[in-house]
Each structure stands twice: as C-alpha cells, then as structure tokens.
Write a structure and sequence with these properties.
By secondary structure, the chain is an alpha/beta fold. It has ten helices and 13 strands. Helix 1 crosses helix 7, helix 4 runs parallel beside helix 5 and helix 8 crosses helix 10. The protein is globular and about 55 Å long. 48% of the residues are buried.
C-alpha cells in the first residue's frame, strides 16, 4: 500500500514507518520537525517537510498517485504545556486534524489510523481500563485527543471513512535505530536512563504513599515495536463507515521503583533517586485492558519483559550518544 505517515519523524511515527517499509509498503512522511528529527526518517521513505494543517491537502491530492491510507501521529503531546498553553493544543491537534480529515475526504483516501492516548480516560474508576470506560480527560492534551476521536466518528458515519483510533498507555523501548529523542523529555524510562548516562543528577519519584505494593505509582508499559505492529493490523482491519477504538498496553503494571530497579539491572550503573510529593491529578494505577485488540485484531505483543524494553531503550541512547560524539569530532 501507499501510505502517508504524519509525524513520521517522531518517536512512534518513525518506528512505525520503519516497520511499514519492512513489510513492503510505500511510505511518505509529512512532518514539520517541530518536535521530530530529520535523521529519524527511515531510509526508503519519502519525506515532505510541512505542517499538516496547510500541507496535507497538497500531499494527499496534488496530482500524485492515490494513497491507500493515512497513519496520523503528528501532535502536540506535553500534558503540562497543554495546561499552560491550551490554544497551542486546540489549534495544533484539533484544527490541524480537521484539515487532515478534509484532505482525506477530498482525495478519496479510504483508511485512517489515529494515534490517540490513554489520557482520554482521565482518572479511571477501575483498572484494567477497557474501551467502554468513561472518557473524562483531566488536561487539554487528553481533551483534544478525545475531540479528534469524536470528529473521526462523525466523518466515518457521514463519508464512509474506515478509521481506527489506538489509545496508547506508556510506550518505551526502541527498534532498529529509532527511539525516544526529544528536546523536552517527560517519560520515566528515558529520564531514568539519562541519570545513568550522567545527563541529569537524579530522578524524582512523585509520591511514595500510594496504595500500591511499594507505595509508588503503577503504570503499564508497551514496547514500541509491538505498538507499530498493532498499527499495521489496524490498517488491515479497518472497515468503511466504521470507527474502531482499541487500547494498547501490556496489561501488566510496574511501579516506579520497579522501573528504576530494572534500569539499574540493565545498565549496571548507580541511579540517584529523590522522593517527592505526589503530583496533582496523578492516579495511583493505570493499566490497560488490550483484550479487544487481541481478539479483534489478532494482536500478540512479543516484547513484554520490562528488562527487554529498558535494554532496547538503553542501547538506543548509547548509540545516540556515540553518534553525537562522532559528529563533534
């Protein structure tokens, strides 16, 4: 298939593009490089630098060969920033995606897979979280993703688009030279590994009195390669006029302290930890039920070991450091 990947120079988008190319698909990446990296674009993909709000119509139409589908990863995705600058998120996520949906409709592109988030659920009433749990986002980032889901549903009903939203939990790891490389990092595993690398002094543990086995919060981690595999399955399973929603996680939770210990085991290096108060709005436990994806998509995660996830992320960060050092020489 000929596929457009928005945000394909970012973490998940670049890994998914790599897997698509491995499966023999033709990939065109559209990214404005505001948070992505040009060197993350995999070899073999065509790259177009541009904002989806203004460039999507030209790329999808523009007299080019017809696309068979769009995988939409491009987004503003920092929770704290979304609270401070909600305008950036409503314009950058919702308004831009509406322009993409209009371009998809005008070009006759039949399929869409949307990179959604567990932030649409907010603080859950029960775990594991299923797709029918109430959607009550607690920040503008989650609210914009939920608004996009609603827009996609209306477009599928009215215009026959075949669409799937994949709600991720905590994505980690690396694959074939693609991994997390953000200017502003907020995810636990790369932050802890940065301490091991000497790039930051310590890691803060926010809350040590949660009702969990060691008092720290529990989160569900999914390997980025398993996530990419789910996108290919979702693309194949999409049906005209239907909008399916699937949670993607491991179904198993790890505490913050367990993640830190895994990082110590994998790196063999000391990691300084500082206990800190709870952050407002943080739930004690977030674990996904991915049963629907397993049953309906045939998704079978292959990389569920926490140590394997950390080891892949660690290898990527070391490789990234080696490349940076070589570039400075």
């Amino acid at each position: 298939m000929r596929l457009l990947v928005t945000g394909g120079a970012g973490y998940v988008g670049s890994v998914c593009s790599t897997v698509l190319l491995e499966q023999g698909h033709e990939v065109v990446i559209l990214d404005d490089l505001s948070t992505g990296n040009a060197d993350a674009v995999p070899a073999g993909a065509e790259f177009v630098e541009g904002d989806i709000a203004t460039a999507a119509a030209e790329v999808l139409g523009g007299g080019q060969p017809r696309f068979d589908g769009v995988l939409h990863f491009a987004a503003q995705s920092l929770v704290g920033e979304s609270v401070e600058h909600p305008d950036k998120y409503w314009h950058g996520n919702v308004v831009a995606t509406l322009a993409l949906l209009d371009a998809i409709r005008a070009s006759g592109t039949p399929r869409l897979v949307f990179s959604s988030t567990a932030a649409t659920y907010g603080e859950p009433d029960r775990v594991p979280i299923t797709e029918d749990a109430p959607a009550r986002p607690t920040n503008p980032y989650g609210a914009t993703k939920l608004a996009i889901d609603h827009a996609i549903s209306s477009y599928t009903r009215a215009y026959g688009l075949a669409a799937t939203s994949l709600r991720y939990f905590n994505v980690a790891g690396a694959y074939h030279g693609a991994g997390e490389n953000r200017v502003v990092e907020t995810h636990l595993i790369p932050l802890v590994l940065q301490v091991a690398l000497g790039q930051r002094e310590r890691i803060s543990v926010f809350g040590t009195d949660w009702p969990t086995k060691d008092g720290t919060a529990v989160r569900d981690y999914i390997h980025v390669k398993d996530l990419a595999d789910a996108h290919l399955l979702a693309l194949a399973a999409a049906r005209p006029g239907e909008h399916a929603v699937y949670n993607l996680g491991s179904g198993e939770g790890f505490t913050v302290r367990e993640v830190i210990e895994a990082c110590r085991r994998v790196t063999g290096l000391p990691i300084t930890v500082v206990d800190a108060p709870r952050r407002a709005g943080d739930p004690a436990v977030l674990i996904a039920s991915s049963r629907r994806a397993v049953e309906e998509l045939g998704w079978k995660p292959q990389h569920t070991s926490l140590d394997e996830i950390v080891a892949d992320a660690w290898a990527y960060l070391q490789e990234l450091g080696d490349r940076s050092h070589a570039a400075r020489r």
